Amino acid sequence: MKKTVLREYAKLIVRCGANVQKGQEVMIYADLDQPEFVQLVVEEAYKAKAAKVMVEWNYQPLAKLHVRYQSLKTLGTVPEWQKARRQHMVDTVPCRIHIISEDPDGLKGMNMAKLAKSRQMTYPILKPYSDQLEGRQQWCIAAVPGKAWAKKVFPGERTSVAVEKLWQAIVSTSRVNEDSLKAWEAHNANLRKRCEYLNSLGIAELHYTADNGTDLTVGMIPEAMFCGGAEVSRQNIVFNPNIPTEECFVSPMRGKAEGIVYSTKPLCYQGQIIDKFYFRFEGGKVVEAKAEQGEELLNTLISMDEGAAYLGECALVPQESPINQSGLLFYNTLFDENAACHLAVGMGFADTIRDHHNKTLEECRKLGINDSMVHEDFMIGCDSMNIDAKTFDGKVVPIFRNGTWAF
Ligand code: ZN
Question: Which domains does the chain have, with CATH numbers?
Fold first, then answer.
């Protein structure tokens, strides 16, 4: 990929994505695949007057070794220095940039039960820190092509060609061009208009149906609003958490989901693939989860904690989204979730509550926002998807027809 395009992309991530502020600290989490690109992001962050930029490198083979050789007790322990580090983040509120590139199959063969148990042990220790940061941090997730990932998306190509093709797909769906900031402004205005209309309806429940057998009703929280594109942190800083993004999303009422929903794309969870699955909901909770591939992992996911079997997100994405139009299956949630309507099991977003800046996290959860250690999107949209909204005053309003906006 041309250096000028990469620079523009790095600038988009720093300025429009995380919106790094003068004097702010920046945490970058990245895989080892594209060090030169990470270097560009670091440089852009300093140009945006970041006080200090730190990079934490991930490497999937090491993650596998740690889980294999460390005892569960060691894996499940949070040492004091790590707590001090989290406390430092709570005190300084750095912005976070995640540059993802991981191999969708990169953790295949890992002992998932052991990993899940260790996460259940560390989560209660780490949760107070993340709760204190909730809504205060700007953050941004964007992607660069890793070799294994590129080969997964373009299996017939030589590695170098596959990487270049994946770069093309990433920059085009992320609206990287000569004036990306302007393109994002227009895109955000568009998403905002959709959300405003949805929020004007007073939606009590969404009813999803599709040819594949999906027939699901999900209850909404009266105080919740559809959001999309740019968000505003509690410090009043506008940022774009996902590059790309095409969704209008809301967090539904915990405990209100009835019916069955079928996946329409594979889900890559913890470096492993779950495919062709369905969930049956009763009283808001998944009571049956079946998959042709990865069923055990799917059941591990929804039993991570009490909230993991409840919904945390309903997102609307039309079939004409550029990511869907690319015709590619990315095996990566950041992209695939923006190609189709999706739901998420697990944690809901407190910042979808109206006036959440003046509410505590606890208050938002009392209104019906789900709480969990996981948040996992899964795709349910397809050409035949229809969605109707039942409003609080009893009207039925079409929201989606044949996989796209009905308004
Ligand atoms: Zn989403």
Answer: 3-173 (3.40.1830.10), 188-405 (no CATH)
